[in-house]
Amino acid sequence: MALANPWVLFAAAAVVLIAVAIGLVLGLRRSSRGRAADTARIARAERLRTLPTFRQALARRAVALSGILALGAVTALVAGVVSARPMSAQTVQPVNTSRDIMLCLDVSGSMTEVDVEVLTVFDELLDGFEGERIGLTIFNSSPVQIFPLTDDYDFIREHLESMTRSFDYGDQVPEHWLGTLNGDGASLIGDGLAACTMGFDHPDDDRSRSMIFATDNEINGASIVTLDEAAAYAASKGVRVFALNPVQGKDAAVSAELTAAAEATGGAAFGLRDTTTVSDIVSQVQEQEATELRGEAQVVWTDTPDLWIALLSICLLAFVVVLWRVRL
Question: What is the mean predicted confidence (pLDDT) over 58-85?
Answer without folding.
Answer: 76
